[in-house]
Amino acid sequence: MLRPRLRPETACPGPGKVRQRGACKRENAAMHADYSDLLLCLYRKSHELPVAHFQDEALNLLKPVLPFDSAMWGCATLTPGGIDIHAIHLHRQPVEMLQAYEEVKHLDTAAQAVGMRPSETLAFDAQSWFGGRQQSALRDYGRRFEQSHFFIGGLVNPDTRFTRWLTLFRARADAHCTESERLRLAGLLPHLQQALELNRLTHLKDVVQTRGGDGTGSALADSRGMIHHMDAIFEHALRNEWAGWQGPWLPAAVVVAAQRGEQRVVGRTLAIKQFSQHGLLWLRVRPLCAADALTPREAIVARLTAMGLTHKQIAARLQRAPATVRNQIRSIYDKLGVANVAALVEALRQAD
Fold it and tell me: Which of 68, 262, 274, 298 is positioned for an S-S bond with 168, CB 3.0–4.6 A?
């Protein structure tokens, strides 16, 4: 097995130790200043930017202290057969890169090395790593997508084998990855990942709109059902609904519903509202209420009635017989235990 060619570099060039020591201090002071500005701006933008823009902006902030040309930033589960990608963000790389990689990934010895050392930040030179005769297709792939040199850094949960990683690519053949740059990325990677989590949590509060104090909770998961965040209310609700559920994956019923495009899951004790956005699943849970017993057709009629429409107006809008709508409204009132529109409005509000 090949090993990464990490190129140690002299931190401060110069003929004398005194000169070298002084140059080091100046370089370190400048670098710490750059780090401080970077981190302050990174965490500020994590609260200000929408999810769709944050990762690109975070990578742009990184470039002045660690130059690169393109990147991919994602999460996956490490398996004996390789990585099972849950979500991925491409920075200045086309989607075709992922499709093309599937054809050559069995030749990727760098990925094998990362699999053996998933919690480390590594640096690779494509020419030396992919120099074997059988790897010609992989070399063609690297030239096509301008990946002459690259860093890979990841953070792994040892219990779940879930990893969040970042790969930075350099296009120029002479832009070698240095040892000090590798260490720089290793130090910055936890901040990048933490800022990403903060950005998503900020967005979660905005889009899920938990009301607090009424039993509603929230969670964020990826398309495979791995939970990235959940509050205590959400966790308690799932444990109460599905005996023996432990996480960190969503219950199968919730994942299946999401894959079908269903925005609501109704159980014995809870109702979950969910929607997909930016490759992630945003969820809100609340206790079951009377309005959850309405059929989809009844729910439509109930909301139109709550808006003040008469049964004849609703019938015309839905192209149904007035008598049918009148009977549906009577059934809705019975199910909800209400006697007027004001009470109906309040019963539907509990199901929002």
Answer: 68
Whole-angstrom distance, CA of residue 96 vs CA of residue 102 = 10
Residue bearing tokens 């609501």: 264
Check: CB of residue 272 under 8 Å from CB of residue 254.
yes
- Find the helix or strand (DSSP H, E) in which 314 lies: helix 311-318
Note the pLDDT tens digit of each residue in 239-285: 999 999 988 999 999 999 999 999 999 999 999 999 998 889 999 99
273 by DSSP, 3-state: which?
strand
Q: C-alpha 50: how far from its chain's center?
A: 13
Q: How do 280-287 and 217-222 pair as beta strands?
A: antiparallel
**Angstrom distance (rounded) from CA 197 to CA 300:** 37
- Tell me which amino acid residue 167 is: T
The residue type of 143 is: R
Q: pLDDT tens digit string along 302-328? A: 999 999 999 999 999 999 999 999 999
* Two structure tokens written together for 153: 């850094």
Report in angstroms the alpha-carbon separations of 96 from 139, 176, 183.
Answer: 16, 25, 31
- Answer yes or no: are the C-beta atoms of 328 and 301 closer than 8 Å: yes
Sign of CA dihedral 332, 336, 337, 338: negative
Judged by DSSP in three states, 136 sits in helix
Yes or no: say if 288 and 270 are a contact pair by the CB < 8 Å rule: yes
Cis peptide leading into residue 8 (ω within 30°): no
Q: How many CB atoms lie within 10 A of CB 72?
A: 21
**β-pair type (270-277, 280-287):** antiparallel
